[in-house]
Specification:
Blueprint (H helix, E strand, L loop, with lengths): L2 E7 L3 E11 L2 E11 L14 H20 L5 E5 L1 H5 L3 H12 L3 E3 L2 H13 L6 E7 L4 E7 L2 E8 L3 H7 L7 H17 L12 E5 L1 H14 L9 E4 H12 L3 H5 L12 H15 L3 E4 L4 H10 L11 H12 L4 H17 L1 H4 L5 H11 L11 H11 L7 H13 L7 H6 L7 H18 L8 E9 L2 E8 L4 H8 L2 H8 L2 E4 L1
Parallel strand pairs: 1-4, 4-5, 6-9, 9-11, 13-14
Antiparallel strand pairs: 1-2, 2-3, 6-7, 7-8, 10-11, 12-13
């Protein structure tokens, strides 16, 4: 199975990700290394990469090369962004990297970088209208798309490092410094004419390490148990509160903040000042943190070159198929269970009365319900639930993922613990318990109706008659095992749906 290395060399940090290709355009990150190299530090004076920074970067890239060699990787996709792009000694630096590390760095143009970031977002988020804000060490990208089509972008030559250095005047308090950055950046935003015409329903999407740190801080403050930062929403009022607290701290206190790398603590206020300027300029009430960006854009470009012309249409479906492949699930069985789940959801709507959006929850549960068997068969649904909660699931809200994970955890025995309700109170309510149980019963019936994984039950027809549901199975072979297994769900079905279940 092919593995590739992707290196992203920015102004602040260098990151290597090891990517396993799963086939059919699917891939999975299996390892990574990250180092703070501060390559863009002190460039403002003369535009040259400094010897100390170059030495540190070379040292880091040699480590990256060593890990790639350990994985037997022959193809390394390595890109450099703002710092190298504007460096006067760019050529000599690239030659030194090639000679000493055996790595050929491609310097991305501002347009190429924006396109890769956009592709990394559009193929991992179900947001039809977005303003992407990415603040790196040496630049800020503002990227606008509508109806999933890239419309405009602007790269400003000011990032978290450069802004911190520009406004590091003696005698200024941290709050005064960030105020000057806000004022300065407001002027930069005013020069972007197309910002005045963005759709009012546009979602602000935050990309980059500083904003992932913001998301981590928010999750710690709210004591959120959900482990994934991608697609994490923050209200503007909450952001302002975090920002006001952080910018008043001295550096030592910022370094001790949970969720913030000590190497990022000094530049984080500058990055957040940019957000404040954008909120004030565009009037956003909410923002969403993305865990994906440039590197994912590079991954998609390699694994699925077609996405460079046309984004993935079903982001959730693509993401689920990736996990199905990665965990070695029986793909035909998964599709069969999903198909029956869809039929059950539609035909029992008169009983459950759930909105169409709940189908997404059932889809996740159906496709990942037996992924945990690759870890341990006994109680595999617990492992499957964990996989749903902790994997890279795209195109779906965090609330829906939590609900799907709970559906998986209870579908075998309806063992719903109220402690889960308390734990995930940020996402679910008491009313959701009924949703979890009803979807869990549907999943159990669907899984039972393909117990032999032969696809012998090709369809079902459900009739709700008085106090009973008559389920007629459409067969393409002997389904005695399937019907026998499905009938064992009848008791739970009656308790949860308040109807008898007859399976024919």
């Amino acid at each position: 199975m092919e593995k590739i290395g992707i290196i992203d060399l920015g102004s602040n940090s260098a990151r290597l990700v090891i990517v396993k290709m799963l086939g059919d355009g699917h891939f999975m990150v299996i390892d990574q290394l990250k180092e703070s190299v501060r390559l863009g530090k002190d460039m403002e004076r003369d535009g040259f990469l400094k010897p100390q920074r170059i030495a540190e970067t070379i040292k880091t890239l040699k480590m990256f090369r060593k890990l790639c060699d350990a994985y037997g990787i022959e193809r390394i996709i390595a890109v450099a962004t703002a710092a190298v792009r504007r460096a006067k000694n760019q050529r000599s630096f690239l030659d030194e990297v090639a000679t000493t590390c055996g790595i050929k760095l491609k310097v991305l143009s501002a347009e190429e970088e924006a396109v890769y970031i956009y592709r990394g977002i559009i193929n991992t988020m179900d947001v039809p209208k977005g303003l992407i804000l990415e603040v790196s060490g040496g630049a800020t990208k503002v990227i606008y798309y509508n109806r999933r089509n890239l419309l405009n972008f602007k790269t400003l030559p000011f990032g978290a490092i450069t802004l911190t250095e520009l406004f590091a005047a003696d005698g200024l308090t941290p709050a005064e410094q960030t105020a000057k950055i806000e004022e300065f950046f407001a002027q930069q935003l005013a020069s972007i004419e197309w910002l005045k015409d963005i759709d009012p329903e546009t979602q602000l999407i935050l990309v980059g390490g500083s904003f992932r740190a913001l998301g981590k801080i928010s999750k710690i403050v709210k004591k959120s148990p959900y482990p994934i930062i991608h697609n994490y929403h923050i209200q503007s009022e909450e952001f302002v509160d975090i920002y006001n607290r952080l910018k008043a701290m001295d550096l030592d206190k910022k370094k001790r903040i949970k969720g913030v790398s000590s190497s990022r603590a000094d530049i984080l206020p500058s990055a957040l000042a940019v957000i404040q300027s954008v909120i004030a300029h565009c009037g956003f009430n909410e923002m969403v943190v993305s865990g994906c960006g440039l590197r994912e854009g590079l991954m998609f470009n390699y694994a699925m070159p077609s996405t460079f012309e046309k984004p993935i249409s079903d982001v959730l479906g693509y993401s689920l198929k990736t996990l199905v492949k990665n965990y070695g699930c029986n793909e035909k069985h998964v599709e069969q269970v999903l198909n029956i789940c869809i039929q059950l959801f539609k035909q029992l709507r008169v009983l459950h009365k759930f909105p169409r959006q709940h189908m997404r929850i059932l889809k996740v549960a159906a496709m990942l319900h037996d992924a945990g068997a690759s870890i341990k068969y006994y109680d595999y649904q617990k492992h499957s639930s964990y996989i749903a909660l902790n994997s890279a699931l795209y195109g779906i809200s965090q609330r829906e993922i939590v609900l799907a994970a709970l559906v998986i955890s209870v579908y075998k025995n309806d063992d719903f613990s109220m402690s889960e309700l308390v734990r995930y109170k940020e996402f679910i309510t008491e009313a959701d318990v009924e949703v979890i149980r009803k979807l869990g019963v549907m999943l159990r019936i669907a899984e039972s109706l393909d117990r032999s994984m032969s696809g012998c039950v090709t369809g079902i027809v459900c009739d709700v008659l008085g106090d009973s549901v008559i389920m007629k199975t459409e067969l393409a072979g002997d389904a005695s095992l399937e019907i026998k297994e499905a009938k064992t769900v009848a008791q739970d079905f009656k308790r949860i749906f308040k109807k008898n279940l007859d399976i024919l």
